[in-house]
Amino acid sequence: MEKLVELKNINKVYANKNVLNNISLTINKNQILAILGGNGTGKSTLLRIISGIERPSSGEINYPNKNIKIGYVPERFSKNIRFTPSEYLYYIGMMSGSAKDYLTKRIDDLLLLFELDKMKNHRIMELSKGNIQKVGLIQAILNRPNLLILDEPLSGLDSEAQEELVKILVELKQQGTTILLTYHESNIFESIVEDTFYLHDGSISETASSEKESIKLLIVRNVNKSIFKEWDGIFHVEEKGNQLYLYVTVKSSDVILSRVLQLEGSIEAVSTVTLDDMERML
Amino acid sequence: MKALIKFSLHDYLRSHKYFPPISTFIILILIYYSYRPNPIIDSYAVTAMILYIISAWLCISVLSLDPPVQRQLMVLHIGGENRYYLSKIISVLLISIILTVYAFIYPIIFGMFDESVTLTIGLVSLVNHVFLSILGISIASLFSKIITENAINSYGGLALTIIISFAALGVYDALPSYLKNIVWIIPPATSTQTPLINWNGENVLDLYLFPFIWIIIYSLIVLYLFIKLAKRIQK
Question: Is the pTM of this model over 0.90?
Fold first, then answer.
């Protein structure tokens, strides 16, 4: 598979707090990928770093294709834009170096597709939250990017628009666009996402294929919580009375269980949970 | 860059934030020339100083237009932060140039001078206006929302710096000889005033040119510092 972006040992520190720890991952061409994780796990920061908007504190980011075009949809698109969607998108297209004739037609097509054509003469600041989010989406796909990055693209969209967005993303993928997105509280993307990265406390634990049951919950006793800090494949450790709840990847669960036994710990229960379950329990 | 400059100017027009600085400038010029006749070189030296303050004000308001998310998207679309910040600075400079033209032409059209403006005096006066507006823009960029989030610090810091720049000569005289070099860090806003007032207006070579060159060097250093700082803060 052809590489589109490669991240090596990316770290990001904000006000002495490590937001991202040693992230290494490769994004290949023509895929739909998701980065999942709870609030404050560093998803948006990672997306901004991949898009080039933000710099990592350390580490390396490579784009093998030097002419890569990146489209980025922020979680909250600016509300206070004094232009109409047509004017705004025209300026954005011109900034990216698109030709005038191409832009005019492309903007009309996209406004029609997102059902904003009737509002094209209203200022963006006068539009509803959902329609503002749509303008945010259009600005990102206006110039047919190679890599489209969407940070929580569903926020503010009604269910109809959400389904429309899924269709558009599939179409874009068919046209050769790689899509990287984050989302939570929704399964609408599960049918189209091909690979998922799980982010927890600023670290990527593992790449797992997008299936609902991809996390094991191990309930163990007689083991010190601190030893798990160094172990691979662990999303989260929680202390409940004298039990430890370990949320681990399916792949590493057997290794973790045998190591717990070697340390003379006892295993109380093993079950499989979904990512949504895990987020609810935490 | 051309598209972002157009965008910025169009957005500034829609925001109506141009109204306070531009109307203040127009009114000040009208007041200044409320009686006639006026000496040419001295009058242009004063209007250039007014433009220095107004350009700083314009810069602060133009650089506060884009919310952070919008700024990030534009940097992505235009292909780099340097281009983004330079486009914004050029946008302010273009507005200042329009004001320069107004300040230059108004007294000529309405016959406010005691004699006619020669080509040499006209060119030097225009250059002085443009240079001082560049100085105002560069200083204000360091106090803009991009660098200083707090509006009180922003406007307060800029006002204080402008006041200090006007008092530079007084500060120089008051300082003991071993501290006089500190004056070099003060914006050289008044440095062209004395050479202009002492100039006979006949030959450019009779004019002491170093203050003009220093204004540009100083402004470029400050603008470089602004872009460096902005890139560091925004990332």
Answer: no
